Amino acid sequence: MTDILDVEIEPADPSDPEFEDVSKYSRGREIAVVVSLYLSCIVVAMVISAILVSATGGSWQAVFSALLDGSMRAPGRWGTTIGIAIPLVIVALGTAINGRAGLVNIGQEGQLLMGAAFATYVGMWMGGPGPLIVIVLLLAGIVGGAIWSGITAGLLYWRKVPEVLSTLLLITVASQLTGYALKVEWLLLAPFRADRSVRNQVSEQLANNTRMPRVTMFGNTFPISAFVVVAMAIIVFFLFKRTVWGFRLQMLGRNKMTARRAGVSNVKYGMGAMLISGGCAGLAGAMMLSGGDFGNYRFTPGFSSNIGWEGLLVALVVRQHPLFIVPMALTLAGIRTGSGFLAATGVEREISQVVQALLILALLLPPAILFVRDRRRALAATRART
Predict the structure, then answer these.
(1) Residue 3: enclosing H or E segment and its boundaries?
(2) What is the CATH number of the domain that holds 233?
(3) Fewer Cβ close by (within 10 Å): the C or N end of the chain?
């Protein structure tokens, strides 16, 4: 089958006044279709959830009210939602970068763990001024995640091991390594204290001057890194749309053969994208540690809390669009924080989990439908010209 990128299409004349009008109309129509599709899926998911809750003797009004209370309306809750959304945004941005290059990285959970472990080691053993330690701690997180994704890149380009397989398997390795480090005092295990009867396998808590500064607004507190991740999303969007690097990544992701003919190195740009993706996941782990919304400034077993998986989900839902990542991360973070209030409604735990799953599924369906639609259009256009 002829590749889509290899088909010559006669471009429209941008100087034509009708060109701009048609372009604006097409963009507006596309936005309306996408918004209506998302709203329809969400409404259907809420209706099904309400029926399930009512069928089990619960109150659907109480369930959705509890979700809103837990995510936004209760005192201090939207600050918590923002704190959880921060690492989701960073992981999703990294996923968007490797996806742009046509690579599939599903090992963010392991890369996040390694980044958090590297950051914990720096926070525990490095001396010096607190602000300097915070900076080095974040850089260590980037290095830890990049090293872990770099293993995948090396296996892919030198041994032809599929990145889907290696990133997935390396999650287990990262989990075992960090679990071992929490058993060794000279690595991550907190030093023994005589005033404690039980020694837990956790790291030492970060000192007050080595923690990420927090902002207080309207009774809600969240790490200052919230502003950083918004800036990161804007920067990634600019890099994708306005730089040669972004264009070459897109070319590589769309058609490797065409990219090679244009002089784009598969190894150089592919490895770079994979290293950046892992570095972002590692940075997310470092920010989770220093932000305080996860583990109370300690590295603990299960520290990642599925943030790697959910960050991957965020990127998939918005089809790896950098600017849409931020609101989607806030949405999933709100579902996560709001679910903690569902137990107070008296609804069975299994039903509350089904409600969460339906809401997430409602966010996943539109990208899948749009992908299938665009794929069919592209194939139809290709057949029409060949």
Answers:
(1) none
(2) 1.10.3470
(3) N
In terms of Cα–Cα distance, which of 59, 76, 74, 120 is closest to 341? 74
- Judge whether 72 lies within some domain: no
3-class DSSP string for 183-200: CCCCCCCCCCCCCCCCCC
| Domain region containing 168 | 78-346
**Is the pLDDT confidence value at 10 over 70?**
no
**Residue at 240: amino acid letter:** F
23 and 127 together in one domain: no
Query: In DSSP terms, which residues pair with 223 in a beta bridge?
Result: 214
For the entire predicted model, the pTM comes to 0.87
CB 278 within 8 A of CB 109: no
Q: Which residue, 120, 154, 123, 157, is CA-closest to 278?
A: 154
- Quote the number of domains for the chain: 2
What angle is formed at CA 295 by the lines to CA 69 and CA 210, rounded to 5 degrees?
115
Structure tokens given for 133 = 């330690």
Tell me how many degrees the CA angle 335-298-192 measures, rounded to the nearest 5: 150
Whether 260 and 383 map to the same domain: the answer is: no
Alpha-carbon span 48 to 346, nearest angstrom: 19
Same domain? 269 vs 301: yes
Tell me the per-residue pLDDT of 125-158, one tens digit each, with 9 for 90 and over.
998 898 999 999 999 999 999 999 999 999 999 9
